[in-house]
Structure formats: structure tokens, C-alpha cells
Amino acid sequence: MEETKVGRIVKVSGPVVVAEGMTGARMYDVVHVSEMNLIGEIVELRGDLASIQVYEETSGVGPGEQVIDTQAPLSVELGPGLIESIYDGIQRPLDSLVQLEGEFMSRGSAMPGLNREKKWHFKPTVNNGTKVGPGDVIGEVQETTLVLHKIMVPRAVAGTIQNIAEGDYTVDQTIGICVAEDGSEKELKLMQECPVRNARQLRGRLAPNSILVTGQRVIDAFFPVTKGGTACVPGPFGSGKTVIQHQLAKWVDAEVVVYVGCGERGNEMTDVLTEFPELKDPHSGEPLMKRSVLIANTSNMPVAAREASVYTGITIAEYFRDMGYVVALMADSTSRWAEAMREISTRLEEMPAEEGYPAYLAARIAAFYERAGRVQCLGTPEREGSLSVIGAVSPPGGDLSDSVVQATLHVVKVFWSLQAELAYQRHFPAIDWLTSYSFYKQYLRECFEDKDQGQEMHGLTVEAMSLLEQESELREIVRLVGAEALSPTDRLALETARSIREDFLHQNAFHDVDTHTSMTKQYEMLKTVLHFHKRALEAIKADVETAQIFKLVVREEIARAKYIPESDVDSIARIRNTIDAQMRQLQTSKVV
Ligand code: ADP
User: Fold this and answer.
1) Of the residues 53, 73, 93, which one is the last residue of a structural domain?
2) Residues 510 and 433 grouped into a single domain
3) CATH number (domain holding residue 540)
4) 357, pLDDT greater than 50
5) The CATH number of the domain where 280 resides is what?
6) Which atom of ligand 1 is nearest to the CA of 245?
């Protein structure tokens, strides 16, 4: 057993403390700073000098005070009780801390991440005598009405199960024993600890195979993210970022949602903390929290905790992925995380790169997003899990050439370009169709059981996008020389593009039906909009005037298709018959 290292503080610089006498300490060891037991992490070692980032306010801490090396890396507790929790950046339960200590948490508060008193009903899925290894599922706990928590063998534990029994246990009681080949015994518990800085182990990575359906038409049809995929969304003020995040949290077809908030202002996170728990899961009617974990940092919490929060969040998310679940992690905003990195780096007197960010900024951002993916989980029974990561960025002044945005865009495969101008025009969700992109579009096909339908949907989105692009060019022409200069087909292109925008892309988050659209309904809606276009082109060829086409009453029905309930989707297909009939009538009356 190694001796506990005790060093002495020689310098305090905001969240960074330098201690001497730390020979033998390792990078990323967690330390306890001063008598107050502030939690910190070693981020630089030079000789016997260790630079430590401290997760709590360091005022009042001074040279000469002790630093104790715990010789363990920064870790989180994983087990039943995670769901419905609200944590700070280093997994201290905010709700219980606040209850215990009032609005302002005192320093050095050491609340465990998982409640030690609560008992959970554990049902083993293996028997005594079963041989197990890391990642093997040994039992289950119904954690909430929405999440069945799989208890897995921790890393580096393998052997034969003994004394496993169904029953009610707290997270740190022994639920069974694992006897290794050399006869040594390890107690198995409902909880395990896991370091946060490195990705959790997995058996293998799998290519994406389906999209993470969000029920938001502009996202699913045009800029989808896959199960296991990565997306970035900038959030200029007033662009509807909060509504989008709520919509995603509500409707995304993930089994577990982890939300990491690094707030801009103190009260912004408080909003999330009060609003999020009130949201309801539309599928079950249960509170959304029953499948969510929140990690919250307000800007009045120390920067180092903000730096750690994304790692805490993603490790928890990976843990649920390892159970074989579809998990979505939303981080808002990663720019605040990067700023925390910058501040620590400045305090460490590292050589700054662009905009004062450390040279490793891009590498850290990439490493974070690379923890997303669709995977073959470690252990038996064989299972597949996925972790999608959606990161919001908030560059100063909305400037997309900002280092954080650029480093993020290098790694993510989807960009939802939220535009304040669209929001001013009340076009919601304000995702700009011309500047957004997704490299996962080909997986849209896989959402449909009927492959031909999937293929057709893909074709429809390509056609719709090309009309939207054409619209932006035609608008320029109209601006220069007036609408009269346009040919009838150009005029039709403008009208159809308007219909795509208003009847398909525009989606009201607050309308009971419109708030969510299934893939089948999205297909029917888009097909109908473009069916009108096709028939209108034929009519134009038959010399029908565009003004007459645009006056057809069926257009009203197309516009209202979004409000047709899912149970009546077939009636959208019938609108196409009405289009045919009305167009035919136009052409016949023309001939007559
Ligand atoms: P931000 O968080 O970017 O400042 P919000 O998400 O609060 O902006 O959105 C501002 C307002 O825009 C909302 O109060 C709401 O009225 C409107 N809005 C945003 N998105 C939608 C949407 N999808 N449907 C309807 N209204 C929306």
C-alpha cells in the first residue's frame, strides 16, 4: 500500500493551486486541498510541483496549507439513482445539497453521487456458479417506471458468481461475490466507480444504421442525426434554442437523455432546473425526468467544475449505453466548457493558441465527440447501444469562425444552423435550410419498413432541397428585375418552395398535433407538397395559367395537413387525389 502523499500549497491563482512535495503523484489524481477538503485534480506535474485545478471557490486558501493526494482519478458513481438526479459538474447532487446547505452550498461538501440509504429491488439474471467478466449483466433494478437499470460487472473484475440473491439493497451493499481464478474475492454491488476522463470500454464500434427520430420535420427529413451520431447547434439569443432543446428532450426516440448545462448566466441554468423537471414524456405521460439525468453548472460555480461537467455527463451517458440503450446527450453550451479550459490554461501559464484557447482545444473537443457512437457493448448477453451527442455552441457575437465552433464543426457530422432572422420572421424551428447540413442523410431510408418508401422519401427530400436552393437564386433575380421576368415554371418553383417552408418545415412546438410528426406522416406531407408541384408543372405545360393553379382550393388542405392527427394519416394521401381532380378540372375547363 502506497503512503498518502501530503504536499503544501505554494501558490493560489483563482481555480489553480500549486503544491510542492508532490513527488510520486500522478497526472489527473484527485486531491483534497486545505483543511476545507476542497476537491481538485492534478493537471500539471513539474518535479515535485503539482498544479491542481480546484472544483470549488479557492478564496481564503493560502500557501502552507496541505494537499492530500487520493491517488485515484476523477470518477463518478454509477448505479441506480442516477436517473432523475440533478448533479453539479463533479456529480454532487444539487437538489440534496441545496436542501441540506441552503441556496449556497458550503465548500468541501462531500455528498456521494448516489443515495446511500435508498433500497432498490435487485433481480439477478445469472445464477451462483456463473462465470462472468467485465460488462456482463448480472441483474436488473427497475430504477424508474421508464428505465430498467442493468447491473453490470465492473471493469477488471472476473470470476465465478457466488451468494447472489434477489432482494432489496442499498447501492453499496453486497449483492453477491465474484471469486477469481486465484481464489481472491470481490464483492459485487449495485454501484461501481468509473474514471471520467477516458471513454468506457466497449467491445467494438458499429457503423450508423438508423436515425435518431426527433419528430421535428426539418431535422428528421433534412438534417437527421443518427443513433450514435454527433450534431452541433449554435444558439444565437432568441433563436428558439430553448424550445428546440425541450422538443428534442421530449421527442427524441432515446431511452435515456443526459443533459449537461453550462450556463451563461446564473439564472439561465436555474430556468433549466425548474423547467426541465416539469416536462412530460409524451409517450408515457410520465415526467421526463424519469428517463433523464441533469448535470448543471451555473456561471457562479467555479470554472473547473464546468470543465469537468461534460466528462461527468458523458461517462454517465456511456454507462447507460453499455446497458444496451439508445442514449442522447445534450451539452449546452460547449463554448462555456471551452472557456473554462481557456481560463485554467491561462492560470497554468500555458502558451495560448488562437483566441487565447489552449493549443489542445481542438483535440479535447474531438475526443469528447468521439465518445459518441453506436457500439457493441462489452460483456454478455450481446447487446448494442448508442450514444448520440448534440452540442450547442454560443460563439461571441454569433461568429461562426470562432475557434470552438470551427473545432466542433471539424468533428461533428450534423450542423443545425439556427438563425435569429428566421425566428424574427416567426419561422420555427429557426433552422436555416441553406446553411445547415447532415452527413447522415442516407440513413433516412432505414427509418421505413418499406424500403421502396424509404428510397422514395430520400428522393423527395433531395427534390425539396433543390427547390429551396432554386428559390434563393430566384429571389435574387426578383429583387433585381422584378417578378414579371420569371417564367411560369420559375414562378411555380417559388410557390412550391414557399409551400415546403410553410407547410412542411415550419412546425409549431406548442400545437398538440404539430409538435411531433412521425416519419410516415412526414413522408405523406412532403410527398403531397411535391405531388402538387408535379401536377402543376404538367398543367403549366398544358398552358394553364399559374395564377389559376395557385388559386386551387386544395392548397388550403395541403397547408392544413400538419394538423391532421397521426391516427388519420391516410387522409393526407387522399389530398393527392383531390390535387389530381382539381388540376384535371383546370385543364379540361381550359380545353373547353
Ligand atoms: P432562445 O432560448 O434562443 O433565447 P426560445 O427558445 O426561448 O429562444 O424561443 C423564443 C420564443 O420563440 C419562444 O418563446 C416561442 O414563442 C418561440 N418559438 C421558438 N421555437 C418555436 C417553435 N418550434 N414553435 C413555436 N414557437 C417557437
Assistant:
1) 73
2) no
3) 1.10.1140.10
4) yes
5) 3.40.50.300
6) 6
Judge whether 103 lies within some domain. Answer: no
Averaged confidence pLDDT in the chain:
91
Give the per-residue pLDDT at 503.
97
Q: What is the CATH number of the domain that holds 16?
A: 2.40.30.20
- Tell me, using a 6 A CB cutoff, whether residue 234 lines ligand 1: no
Give distance in angstroms: CA of 245 to centre of ligand 1: 10
Residues 6+ apart with CB under 8 A from 154: 134, 192, 193, 194
Q: Whose CA is nearest to atom 13 of ligand 1?
A: 240
Q: Is residue 199 part of a domain?
A: no
In this structure, the answer to whether residues 212 and 307 fall within a common structural domain is: yes
Confidence (pTM): 0.93
The structural domain count of the chain equals 4
Task: Determine, yes or no, domain membership for 105.
Answer: no
Tell me the angle at which helices 519-541 and 451-481 cross, rounded to the nearest 10 degrees: 50
Cβ(429) – ligand 1 distance below 6 Å: yes
Q: Which atom of ligand 1 is nearest to the CA of 418?
A: 3
Residues above pLDDT 70, as percent of the chain: 94
Same domain flag for 270 and 362: yes
249 CA distance to ligand 1 middle (Å): 15
Q: Does the CA dihedral 498-433-490-457 come out positive or negative?
A: negative
Retrieve residue 177's grid coordinates: 461475490
Q: What is the pLDDT of residues 134-179, one digit of tens each?
A: 999 999 999 999 999 999 999 989 999 999 999 999 999 999 999 9
Q: Which three cell numbers stand for residue 567?
A: 391516427
Q: Are residues 303 and 421 in the same domain?
A: yes
pLDDT at 271 exceeding the cut of 70: no
What does each C-alpha distance from 1 to 4, 5, 50, 434, 488 come to in angstroms?
9, 12, 22, 61, 84
Residues 249, 396 within the same domain: yes
Residues 168 and 132 reside in one and the same domain: yes
CA of 257 to the centre of ligand 1 (A): 21
Single residue among 192, 223, 247 that ends a domain in this structure: 192
Q: Is the pLDDT of residue 426 over 60?
A: yes
Residue ranges making up the domain that contains 121:
110-192
Q: Are strands 192-195 and 167-169 parallel, antiparallel or unpaired?
A: unpaired
Instruction: Assess if residue 198 is contained within a domain.
Output: no
Q: Looking at this protein, which amino acid is placed at residue 29?
A: D
Nearest to 11 by CA among 62, 52, 67, 49: 62
CA distances, 520 to each of 218, 447, 454 (Å): 14, 9, 10
Give the pLDDT confidence score for residue 303 in this predicted structure.
80
Examine the domain organization and report whether 327 and 267 are in the same domain: yes
Residue with CA nearest ligand 1 atom 15: 240
Pick from 529, 523, 536: which is nearest to 569 by CA? 523
Query: Looking at the structure, do residues 285 and 355 belong to the same domain, yes or no?
Result: yes
Instruction: Look at residue 1 and tell me whether its pLDDT is greater than 50.
Output: no
Give the CATH number of the domain where residue 149 resides. 2.40.50.100
Q: With a 6 A CB cut-off, is 420 part of the ligand 1 pocket?
A: no
For residue 275, how many other CB atoms are within 10 A of its CB? 12
As a whole-number percent, the residues of the chain with pLDDT over 90 amount to: 71
User: 176 and 164 in contact (C-beta within 8 Å)?
Assistant: yes
Q: Whose CA is nearest to atom 21 of ligand 1?
A: 428
